[in-house]
Target: Sema domain-containing protein
Amino acid sequence: MSSELMDSFCLLRLTVTLLALLNPCLTRLTPRVSFPMGSPGRRLTCFSSHDLSNTTTLLLSADGEKLYVGARDAVLLLDVGHKDTVLLRSKLDWSPSEKDLEECSMKGKKMADCPNFIRVLQFFNSTHMYVCGTFAFSPRCAYINSETLTMSLNTDEGRGRCPYDPYQRNTAIIVGEELYTGTVADYRGNRPVISRHLSEGSRVDLKLDDTLGWLEDPTFISSKFIPHEEKIYFFFSEVGREYNFVDKFIVSRVSQICMSDVGGQRTLQRRWTTFAKAQLLCQDGSELPYNVIQDIDLLPPAEGTSVDDILFYGIFTSQWAVNSGRSAVCSFTLTEIKSIFSGNYKVLNRDTLQWSARVQEKVANPGECGLHNASDNALRFVKENFLAEDSVRPAGRRLTLVSREHIYSHLTVQRVQAANKKLYTVLFLLTESGHLHKAVLLQQGSYIIEEVQVFKPPQPIRSLMLSIPKGMLYVGTSEGVVRIPTANCSYYWTCAQCVLSRDPFCGWDAASRACVEVSVTQTALGQDTDGGNVEEACNSVSVTHRTKFGPSKMPAISCPAGELVSVSLNDVVRLHCPAASQLSHQLWERPNSRLSSDLYLHLQDGSLSFVATPATLGHYLCLSTENGYRQTMAIYHVKQKSSPVAQTPTSYTRSHTRAQPTREGPKATESRPAVTKPSLAIRNTPVTTRQLDRNLTLWMKEYENLETKFRDGNPLLSACCPSYLKELVVVSVLLVLCLSLLITVTLYVLRQRWRRQTAPGMGTPSRSSDRRTPEEQESLRENEFGSKANGQVPSGGHASGLVCNGNLTDSTQNLPNTPF
Ligand SMILES: *[C@@H]1O[C@H](CO)[C@@H](O)[C@H](O)[C@H]1NC(C)=O
Ligand SMILES: *[C@@H]1O[C@H](CO)[C@@H](O)[C@H](O)[C@H]1NC(C)=O
Ligand SMILES: *[C@@H]1O[C@H](CO)[C@@H](O)[C@H](O)[C@H]1NC(C)=O
Ligand SMILES: *[C@@H]1O[C@H](CO)[C@@H](O)[C@H](O)[C@H]1NC(C)=O
Ligand SMILES: *[C@H]1O[C@H](CO)[C@@H](O)[C@H](O)[C@H]1NC(C)=O
Model:
């Protein structure tokens, strides 16, 4: 491809990216930081044991101290009240007998599917739980004591309460010592039913009338109890028969039943009289719906708001692979669900099995509670009209989040009070690939604060549970239970990082100079979840600090010291630039000049590569920009190796000698893996920012410690001290620039070198300005730079230079060899 074509291609890409920025739905949702498994910044606590597998259900005690785990052939009680460990308190073994297993395999089932997989685990009363398992394709249920895990002597038959087949999904909830379930109720798995068991007193057990196909091959997802409504809502997907023009079109549903239901007297005896269902539509106008629900969680109303302000957050995927996203999150309000259920219903023509919206005389209100004494006529009407005509649309008529890359499988949701007392909704989303995403919902769209790898696929994970009182998340996988705190604020080591994280859980405490959890402190914290504006948030809290440490502009922000790189002429030099986060953009600068692309290669990982020539010796700055905040990540001084020539004092070497008076020799030189012979260097593999990220942590911490030593004077430091680009201005300038370029770029223009690429703030190197006389310009620059630096280097310089060396050396050694 010619470079002209490349240029226009880049331009197009840039425009598209900018347009995407303006439309939150198109934005690529990149987690700001990513923690691979085993990262010290996000430690997982795991519980596993050799006889624990297929953890299918999790249940947490109200105080968050005890976690019950339903697994294969066992129920476990884990003590999760300790900060650092998860302890096994007791264990109930509950497996089928040899005879049961034999029968199971005689029936043609795989032996691996014959154990007892626990699929229902619910608190029954204050002392007991109710548990059901598949029990060798012959489901059983039992009461167990919540403290001792001892099991009742008699077990119940589990038909209709628990699936036979461990691969079939089900849902169950106990309310008022009555069990409500959605499951298949036969061995073959083709009789789905929503039913009530263990009905109290004279109340009868109820189920769906199965003659009419009230459910069409459903996959049950969840069931939720809404106390003030006295209703249970079931969430599932099924074949949408009303769309009979599409074969096997899956739709997601919400259905309801009233707890007061006792069935009809003649019509609908022992059947629900209050069952109604409606379509949940997670769709953006321009695309096919995300039609298959994967998980749903309930967000209770905020304090002081209406009880109907309950929100349901669901994950949806699409049956077809044509949408722009692989999965989406939609939220639905209880108010909307209620209004759809109180509206009109479709009518099923029994002969043709076609649904229509034909208006019938309304003899009853389907979905209404308290129909037990209604006339047969009314009950017959209810029996035939149970599919709401309208669909439940997402809150705000838009998708909450769309992920292009990830298939989310589980979610939980929490409302978090930020430092400014504002409430934010935080979603915890599990991807199929084993990553947990923490997303905060903002006015302008969703923002993924972090990504933590919690298991290695493939793991058919079954459970994600949030403990709000303890601030913990639990993930049940095939191999055990993983616990992870909802936040680790101390990972953010500067005010800037703390604010840029936009984590509503975390704020910068200027007094302790630490990023701390908002919930545990009363003092004013630096935080800006909405905007991530470092300047405002850090200045507002750093007043006390400033008075203590003198008039430095931004005390909470660290500046790296210069690092010496000794090279021989014609070496290929590679300077690394660690990324501050996955959302930051790195760019290289030489003081008072731009980097010509003829001499410099910008590598994918943000590092800079060039051949050491007299012209390329000198100082280099690596800057990182994120959300309009700019910071210097590294400063290098590339210098020719000690030789008679190099020792000739020039203004800049002199200045550097003063910075590193004693350590310029072997130590600095031997720890320079960035300098290699040409053939080797070019084969260096690009690395991902994830790795850099981790090592940067260590590295930046060191800087933080040294920060106080750089108070004044050094021009390098003043060059690095944070400059703030007004984000809005930059984006609009770029947009205007791009649009006007797009319009005016013609073939004629394309043939020319595209000069405007070097718009300020974009970091693209100029291609023409330095080309003619690099050497001259270089020496000019160095002189200029050197004279500025001369005699103003703080005494702490040399120590920090060495710290840089040490840590960077480690990382560079590791990076090419450990592809992520
Ligand atoms: C939080 O991050 C800090 C700094 O990276 C680390 O030392 C600490 O172990 C982390 N804590 C947890 C619970 O992950
Ligand atoms: C149980 O776990 C094993 C190992 O991960 C897996 O292969 C199997 O499919 C699981 N069984 C069920 C019923 O989920
Ligand atoms: C809870 O239910 C179990 C099983 O029915 C029963 O044995 C126990 O007495 C009940 N406990 C209370 C406190 O009612
Ligand atoms: C239904 O009617 C019967 C007698 O007609 C009455 O005893 C019962 O209380 C009524 N049930 C309800 C829930 O109103
Ligand atoms: C980061 O550096 C440490 C040594 O400081 C090294 O052990 C580790 O493997 C590096 N991590 C990566 C991801 O390269």
In short: The radius of gyration is 32 Å. Residues 1-26, 544-557, 644-727, 757-820 have pLDDT under 50 and may be disordered.
